[in-house]
Amino acid sequence: MQIAKACLALLLLLNGIVGCAQNRTTWNNKKCAVALTYDDALNIHLDKVIPALDSMGFKATFYLIGSSDAFTKRIPAWRKAAANGHELGNHTLFHPCYGKRPGREWVRPDYDLNNYTMLRAVNEIKMNSALLEATDGKKRRTLACPCGDSKVADSSFLYKVKDDFVAMRDGTPDADEVNGFGGRTIQWMAPNGNTGTQLIDAVKRAMESNALVIFVFHGVGGDHSINVSAEAHRELLQFLKKNESQVWVAPFVDIAASMKKQ
Ligand SMILES: [Zn+2]
Fold this sequence. Notes:
- The protein has 262 residues and is of the alpha/beta class.
- It has a single domain (2-261), classed as TIM Barrel, CATH 3.20.20.370.
- It contains eleven helices and 13 strands.
- Strands 1, 2, 3, 4, 9, 10 and 13 form a seven-stranded mixed β-sheet that branches. Strands 5-8 form a two-stranded parallel ribbon.
- Helix 3 packs parallel to helix 10.
């Protein structure tokens, strides 16, 4: 999938680490927090990922593109997932990214963020939120920018939509400013071909540094060019289950709300 290929450069950027000291009570009285997030509204999320999460009692965040087939053709399934505790996050209506960058040939001119006005960018995000609210009945959710791109000309649209969201999933300076999480350690991992051990090591690092680690998944066992195997994903879930007393696994909206409260 073209959108899929597109996100990789951004995701690598998100692999940075920002941090400061904090105490153990930060993460629901556990050592660390894990936000499992899945981008781009994929059929495999409904067919394989959600059943795997539900079998272990974990709730996650799915960043949905309102115009995607896997959303428009399967709204009742997403509604059921939300009723079951998963977050339907906003990944915009048409997934606009900057097309004039290396590796971004897949971006259609109509959906090149360089060609957007601020009003169009904001309106499409708000329309996607309306679609998601019509699906899950909820007003609280988070936003993840496609490819991490959020600027129209020199201004970020995040400031225009910040009151519509509990938080932004991205690690850009604008998202940091809008989120105002303060001195928390936040780590990102955007898996692509990683082994189960590598995924687990990311959680171990978060446990050691009392951090929140945000996993940015796309395909799991296929359905996207950015992908991890179903086996690696299962190994991660099994590790999280085994360490449930020390690791807080929750939708990003809940972790972000907790961070803001503190
Ligand atoms: Zn995306």
